[in-house]
Design a protein that fits this description.
Strand content: 15-25%
Bound molecules: adenosine-5'-triphosphate, magnesium ion
Largest sheet: 6 strands, antiparallel
Helix content: 55-70%
Number of strands: 13
CATH superfamily of the largest domain: PAS domain
CATH topology of the largest domain: Beta-Lactamase
Distance between the termini: 115 Å
Radius of gyration: 72 Å
Strand order of the largest sheet: 3-2-1-6-5-4
Structural class: alpha+beta
Shape: rod-shaped
């Protein structure tokens, strides 16, 4: 049940009880007032009648009684609503009583002699006569010395007066009921205006906040000076605080989200680095294993070569050895020595790639690498182009290491252009930095393949044709030269490998 309904019901109940009490009290007061009025009026009538009759009668005589009866009849004729009018006159012995009764057939006069109860004071009472309620009044009559000599009694019907009182009561009840209704109606309207409407507006604002439909810009009723105003202002203040809290919370969530996103990015980058490092490590491990293997092989080859060398020397020194064989043995001896030197050099270089810079003519170095790598057959299908600025001149670098890188780049390019194409070897310098590029118009290298081309043993060439070590070794050499290799490629349009490394221009002394 809504608050408004509850208050209305309570008010209605209070009103009904109040009105009922008021009606009851009003009615009983009115009834008493009516009775009082009747009594007073009857007394008045009795007084008026007694003043009209002469009671100075000494002796009881028939004529006196008749005279009194006539006078009484004349006096009561002017008054309506009487039931009985009687006069008792005190006599020695029995008292005289003259009575006029107003019946259906008109007034009837009777005389009797009996003992009569005379009262000293006027008295009025209400009685039930058997023909309806009546007001009975005794009006004593005294002689000049104050002794009671007669009594006038009248009885008047009060039914008319009670009818009027009943009517008044009905009117009173109707007025009470309708004024109660009007009051209740007015109260409901006032309540609606004062309490119900502002409270429902407040409830609607709260419901809007609760449902998340949005906070109204101002809480209705906040301007009121009463308790509703206090409530609305309280709610408003609370909402301001809630808004503040939620803004703070949102900011914190945003900050945390941004921080998380940042950390996530960092994590992704770290992961990439980790993958890269792992790949690098694997490559290095493979290279190291290869180096070790090659070293073992070279070392193992050294012993039989020493034995061969010893035996060849012994054969050459033998007196039975013919001179032309001696010459051939010397050739063998020389070649064995060369092989031993190669192995030593390999073993040395396997230990560490240490560049030995010397002045080198860049154009000549490129030509040499091209002539070593591009066969005559290849030149029939591939247009070879060397792009070296004329002012390039000489630079300080390790020719064998740089040549090794160039030849690898060039042979890869030639292999990539089996159907022909264009090969360009370019040299550029920026300060002390040299850039040597080998560019081809082959199929190029796709995204996924790019990740692997520098890994040892990665090769797309048929078995026996490629080891997959070329670019891996090139990268090691580039590191030894304190440089780097960069690959540019548009799949379908060729690839370009560039070796960047420090190679200061060589200025001949003087
Ligand atoms: N210019 C290029 N165009 C297209 N693919 C290339 C090019 N250069 C290298 N590649 C790819 O890179 C792979 C690795 O090259 P790398 O030189 O390391 O080994 P390889 O050439 O296969 O073997 P090897 O060098 O021992 O002959 C090649 O198998 C080839 O797939
Ligand atoms: Mg290769």
């Amino acid at each position: 049940m809504s608050l408004r309904l509850q208050i209305t019901a309570l008010f209605g109940a209070i009103l009904v009880v109040t009105m009922a009490i008021a009606a009851y009290l009003g009615e009983s007061i009115a009834a008493r007032a009516v009775e009082e009025g009747i009594r007073e009026r009857t007394k008045e009538v009795a007084r008026s009648i007694s003043s009209e009759i002469d009671f100075s009668l000494r002796e009881p005589r028939e004529s006196d009684r008749a005279r009194i009866a006539v006078r009484l009849a004349a006096a009561v004729a002017r008054h309506h609503g009487l039931r009985i009018a009687e006069i008792a006159i005190r006599r020695p012995g029995k008292d005289d009583v003259v009575r006029i009764t107003f019946g259906k057939n008109g007034p009837e006069t009777t005389f009797e002699q009996r003992d009569y109860m005379f009262s000293a004071q006027p008295q009025a009472r209400l009685l039930d006569s058997g023909e309806g309620r009546v007001a009975q009044v005794d009006q004593p009559v005294s002689d000049p010395f104050g002794r009671p000599i007669a009594n006038l009694r009248i009885e008047a019907y009060v039914a008319d007066a009670e009818l009027i009182a009943d009517r008044e009561r009905t009117v009173f009840l109707w007025v009470t009921a309708s004024s109660s209704l009007a009051l209740a109606l007015a109260f409901t309207l006032i309540l609606r205006r004062m309490l119900a409407r502002p409270l429902s507006r407040l409830a609607a604002a709260m419901a809007a906040v609760e449902s998340g439909a949005g906070v109204p810009p101002a809480i209705p009723g906040a301007e009121r000076p009463d308790e509703i105003g206090t409530l609305a202002r309280g709610l408003d203040a609370m909402l301001v605080r809630v808004r503040g809290f939620s803004r703070e919370l949102q900011e914190k969530v945003d900050d945390a989200t941004a921080d998380l996103a940042h950390k996530n990015r960092a994590l992704v980058e770290l992961n990439d680095l980790l993958v890269e490092a792992r790949r690098d490590l694997t490559a290095k491990e493979q290279l190291a294993a290869l180096g070790q293997l090659s070293g073992t092989i070279a070392h193992e080859l050294g012993n039989p070569l020493n034995t061969i060398s010893g035996h060849v020397q012994l054969l050459a020194r033998a007196p039975s050895c013919p001179p032309d064989m001696k010459e051939q043995l010397e050739v063998v001896q020389r070649e064995v020595k060369r092989m031993t030197a190669i192995i030593r050099r390999f073993l040395d270089s396997a230990r560490a790639l240490t560049p030995a810079p010397e002045p080198v003519e860049i154009a000549a170095l490129i030509d040499e690498a091209l002539s070593l790598t591009v066969s005559a057959e290849a030149r029939t299908r591939i247009a070879v182009n060397r792009d070296v600025p004329s002012e390039m001149g000489r630079a300080a670098l390790d020719p064998s290491l740089v040549r090794h890188v160039l030849t690898n780049f060039i042979s890869n390019a030639v292999d990539a252009m089996a159907q022909g194409g264009r090969l360009t070897v370019r040299a550029r310098r920026a300060g002390d930095q040299m850039a040597l590029t080998v560019e081809d118009s082959g199929p190029g290298i796709g995204g996924e393949e790019r990740k692997h081309v520098f890994e040892p043993f990665y090769s797309t060439k048929p078995k026996g044709k490629g080891t997959g070590l070329g670019l891996a070794i090139c990268r090691e050499i580039a590191a030894a030269l304190k440089g780097r290799i960069e690959l540019e490629s548009v799949p379908g349009h060729g690839a370009a490998f560039t070796l960047y490394f420090p190679a200061p221009a060589w200025k001949a002394a003087g």
